[in-house]
Amino acid sequence: MENYELIDNIAGNQxxxxxxxxxxxxxxxxxxxxxxxxxxxxxxxxxEGQGIGSQLVEKTLTDIEKKGLRLVPLCPFVAGYIRKHxxxxxxxxxx
Length: 95
Description:
Aminopeptidase, 95 residues
């Protein structure tokens, strides 16, 4: 699988992968208190089953940790990823 570049589209309030003509994304809300709420993950149907969503979540969580933010995973896909990879609970403030 290709290694995609994570883009933090601050103006759009979302993390993104540009995969050819397609856009995979995780929408978020950031607070002034250093919290980030991941609200929705979207991977185009033609890209499903290729691990792109998991790579997007992994790189997003890495960026959140690097920025010192505290995470609230409202998106079921992100919450499920964290359940499968409990090491990421270190940045979660509530599920």
